[in-house]
Hints:
Shape: globular
Number of helices: 11
Low-confidence stretches: 1-25
Number of strands: 15
Structural class: alpha+beta
Amino acid sequence: MIRALALTLTVSLLTACTDNTAEGPEPMTRMQALLSGQGDEPQAVPGAAVAVWRDGEIVWSHAVGIATFDEDGVTPRRPLTPQSPVRAASISKLATALTALSLSNDGTVDMDADITDVLGFDLPVQPGGAPVTLTSLLSHTSGICDPEVYWAAFGETLEGLLTEEARCPYPPGQGWTYANINYGIAAQVMERAAQVRFDRLATASVLTPLGLDAGFNWSGVSQSKRQGGATLYRRFDGAWATQVDGIETLQDTGPAIFRREATEGDVRITARQRFDNGTLYSPQGGLRASVEDLAVLAAAFLPGGMGEALADPVWTGDEVPGVRAYGPGPQVLLPGQVESHPELGFVGHAGEAYGLYGGAWAIADQNATVAFFVTGVDPDGDLSRNPVSGFTRYEAELMAIALQVLESIPASH
């Protein structure tokens, strides 16, 4: 009886999802197919969302599927909409990089200065390299690699994570390794330089100026926006099991620190901290934002945007097929890497964590951006990557859907 009711509710909720234009049904049909795994049931996902920004505004957005289920993991509770915030995974790095640039522009930090004095302790790096800077941290060229655990729980310190295990096999500036810990270090440098918590720096420097009701680990997100958020799931035994942002978290108020140990719950931060744990607000992946928010965020990296100075590659993976180039924050997809549109280049970032796969990408030639994600991807499913773009099947299909929509909308819409 419960499953029959769930099916009925699913159909009604899916029809309630929003579409901002009168575009033809094909993009929505393709999105709908993702919910059933495009005919491959093990690849099915609970929700998908796409937004397209052009010439200063969101010109199209659509979402299908479910944002949250009841505790049984089967009965739909709310539909996913283009306004539903999710934990945006590594797309969050765009907001972190913009925060650093803003602080650099006002003289609080220097993007290209040695961070050791501000940080207050020495980093475990190979000798003989360049100084470690915010630019090298944000572009993963710092010579610091992820230890087994790249976050410190409340009450612990970032310095305690940075043991010899975090030392890359090359000196700073002489190699590249994608490492989330770089963003925890960068956040701590910003906090110590400004004497302000990272979440508040990001809100004041980036999110509020962009007009976004978004925030790291729910900090600064309005109660109404949070209550409309989406849970990230994984399927177990035919039901959707919460991975992050369950019903209680979404219905709660105030900022929370997700400690990642399920038995310990969330910790509230209300007072000024000692700025000794830059990982607390998950600067590498903890932004809560909707697909429409992410499209606006990506627009900051277009010519004339607040992040234009970050859009040029610092490192290019020319010898590694499927590896993107990196600026200080954004990834760069060079022309030819997106096979369906080889004439286009993209600046933005992909994201994948807790079942979410997505991306937010600026397209300078089109004065446009696209943002997209799916939720509930099976980590044991087909996650093979295209050898040219590095995209999974989910990213490739969502990018294709977004570009199909963009092509149908003239620049002078």
